[in-house]
């Protein structure tokens, strides 16, 4: 049995740039089988597609690609703003938020990867008290300060060169299963990605990536989240930070220093072995285990006698 209170919690999952809501399915399957979450109703595991991704495919604006500078201009580029707004709208639409009563509403835990992790975190910064816990897999943070421009050049280059259109879904599946860049992915995760990220074209004669590589490439050209010192103190919930051991997209040292300076808010967990920035796709087993461990940091999963009516205890 899960502790009283945890069965009332909603887990909101936010995917990374270029992906889709289905990429969380292998992790959610494992979470639902755990003793901690077996009493949580399936409807309380909430996933969604960000704009320009999956079911929210949007081809209305043609990207402007500059191959010389390896930069792309497109509305998707300004993802910090629209992704944060999307998360906030998703939160407001949750049935558990319908009453608007802060003291009696059910706990809400945000779980995000990359772009999704940033959107969850920034939502809590802009609207403190939105979440009762955050578990963030490598939020893309201050890349212009903490990383070389060559990182952006590389990401844009490999994304623009990616194949994106196939005559059949089987052809798309064979491409991803044989493509070297996807070799490290868990096979169930790869299938889940294909299920949501590859869609039938309007003419019904071909299949394409829902998020065109040129649109995805614009994400990497953006100014990433970079919070002022006072903004870093605004979250009112415990925030767990996770990273892959082989990542090139996450400056662990920055987050270790952040957790040292604000230990009541942030906690950095040990790196996930043999994984990159895409750890949630490479190792859903360990990702689920890390989430379960992180949940025990939150009051709703600590056996509180009435966690849904004592949420102030989980806040800072």
UniProtKB/TrEMBL annotation:
Coiled coil: none annotated. InterPro entries: AB_hydrolase_1, AB_hydrolase_fold. Residues 11-289 form the AB hydrolase-1 domain. Signal peptide: none annotated. This is AB hydrolase-1 domain-containing protein. It comes from Globisporangium ultimum (strain ATCC 200006 / CBS 805.95 / DAOM BR144). The lineage of its organism: Eukaryota, Sar, Stramenopiles, Oomycota, Peronosporomycetes.
